[in-house]
Amino acid sequence: MALFLLSPVCSALSAPNRHPSSSLEGKVMPTGSQVWPAIGGTAGFHRGAGRLGKKRARLVPAASDSMFLDEAAALKALDFPLSEAELISAAKAFLFYGQGTEKPELLAPEYVFMGPYVGGADGLPRDEYLKAVGGFDLKAAFPDLNPRFHHFRADPLDAGRVWFTSQASGTDSGSGFLGGKPTGKAFSTPPQACSLKFDASGLAIKYTIGHVMERSLGNTGGLGGIFGPAYAIGRPLPFPEARPWRPSKRYRLLQAVGQFVTFLNERKK
Known about the structure:
Blueprint: H1 44-48, H2 71-78, H3 84-96, E1 107-114, E2 124-125, H4 126-134, H5 138-141, E3 149-154, E4 161-166, E5 169-171, E6 186-188, E7 192-198, E8 204-212, H6 227-232, H7 249-268
Parallel strand pairs: 1-8
Antiparallel strand pairs: 1-2, 3-4, 4-7, 5-6, 7-8
């Protein structure tokens, strides 16, 4: 059984007296410097931290700056018994065997499964996971289903965790999704962040999936998990979480107020 995987804009403002002088044009300053211009767009201070000047293409970030994590050193400091290569190998074995359903011995007794809307605050326990996922043959509905797992890497801040990405695709040409007739329609999900966390012996203790990284990609309305394919083939599930995101009335009102305030400020100028 193959189970494929189910920010407000902040303007960075810099005061006139903090702009760099022409003598600093194009140079890189230490993060501790008081000269920190914001250069562009969302989270400008983060993107521009320590960089000066308008010629961005010529600026090279200081690799030793603390804003760039030394991943190798951080991984070493975790002192986890399994190496990054061993963790990635364990993750791939788990995924290959039906996300652990075909080899339950890969799952620790305390194992939990968690998606954006599945599993609640503490995650779906091991036995419930095996029962729910083991009895759901998505491959029958989408014979060419491919989760396209890639970009495996160990988390340098959380011992034993492996992060990876899925960008699933498939065609509704099999037995029919959720009992319906096959539509022949294909789906392609956005990239989704997934992770597996292991204990010191290499058993899986947590599996997280379905966190969309770029909702404008694919044809699932920005939805991941099982919600995405259902929407793409014209059979969205009947609850709000399974539909493309829509701003709430309160959010739309807040946006309108913001636009009105901006309009008034522009008129004053």
